[in-house]
Amino acid sequence: MPQDDLDLAQALTDCAALSLMHWATEPRQDDVTTRVQSAIAAKATLEIAKGMIAAHHDVTIPQAGRLLTEPAARHRTSLAETALALVNRTVDPFLVLDASAAT
Questions:
Q1: Other Cβ atoms closer than 10 A to 88
Q2: What's the pTM value of the predicted model, to 2 decimals?
Q3: Beta-carbon-side half-sphere exposure of residue 24 (alpha carbons within 13 Å)
Q4: Which three-class secondary structure state does DSSP give residue 25?
Q5: Residue 83 contacts residue 75 (beta carbons within 8 Å)
Q6: pLDDT one-digit tens code per residue, 67-93
Q7: Of 70, 72, 76, 77, which has fewest CB within 10 angstroms of its CB?
Q8: Alpha helix (H) ranges present in the chain?
Q9: Within 10 A of 68 (CB to CB), how many other CB atoms are there?
Q10: Tell me, what DSSP letter sits at residue 60?
Q11: In angstroms, rounded to a whole number, what is the distance separating the alpha carbons of residues 21 and 39?
């Protein structure tokens, strides 16, 4: 094989290797499917959190939703983060009502 062909083959191999090394294994954030799945997961988490509050405090789901928004606003966190903390049990459902009663 001529040296020019070997150099070209090596250059193409190097380009392919670099492309594979920089290829993101995680889905891109601007991917529509990823964004839709994230929104669905956040909505499901929010509904679970509202159900937890409703069960712990004997209130309706709409009332539980309002109770959940108060600590999120007070702590300047998103509603999704607050709901996730509740579902992951890093926040006690009783603290939501206690914090609402204090304001």
A1: 10
A2: 0.61
A3: 6
A4: coil
A5: no
A6: 888 888 887 888 888 888 888 888 777
A7: 76
A8: 3-22, 32-57, 61-74, 79-87, 93-102
A9: 23
A10: -
A11: 30
